[in-house]
Amino acid sequence: MQRPDEKKTGNDWNWTSYFSAKKQKLLHQYNQEKSDYVDENETKNLFRNIGIFVNGYTNPTAIELKALMIKHGGFYFEYMNERVNYIIASNLAHSKALALKNKTVIKPEWVVDCIKAKKLLSIDNYLLVTSAHDKAQNKLTIYINKDNLKKGNTFIRLFCY
Questions:
Q1: b vs e for 3-30, b when ≥16 Cβ sit within 10 Å of the residue's Cβ?
Q2: N or C: at which end does the chain have fewer Cβ atoms within 10 angstroms?
């Protein structure tokens, strides 16, 4: 089955070239936005060589974090790549946390607090701790007493360990 857009671009179409072109376009747009923020304040290079990727809902929002990173000399990436230093998230599902367990995930407050302090702060107080960092996630176990079940009693105990 052929995709409709394959007919327009020929047989060369593939996801790799599509995403490569998309990332290049986003970088171009980012650089245009960055040139709009010519600012002479003392924090204009605060986030120099630091790139973030926002995962999910955050406060401040991803759009606000993007503007803050641009204004203060950092990078904001729409997609994960090798230039991302920190993943910004307010919370992560257990499966997502497991997938990102080798990455540095920090809270969005770090960006705001660094700007307020006018210096880069240690990320130690901003690390997002999730259940993926625990040895095991809490599990719910149902214990049914067979004797009570035979008598018609529906007594069930739930244990959380």
A1: eeeeeeeeeeeeeeeeeeeeeeeeeeeb
A2: N
For 5, the token pair is: 């857009």
pTM equals 0.62
Give 46-77 as a DSSP string: TTTT-EEEE-S--SS-HHHHHHHHHHTT-EEE
Nearest to 112 by CA among 66, 68, 52: 68
DSSP per-residue string spanning 4-51: HHHHHH-TT--HHHHHHHHHHHHHHHHHHHHHHT---STTTTTTTT-E
The CA-CA-CA angle for residues 82, 85, 14, to 5°, reads 30
Report pLDDT digits (tens) over 100-142.
888 999 999 999 999 999 999 999 999 987 655 554 445 444 4
pLDDT in tens, 59-70: 999 999 999 998
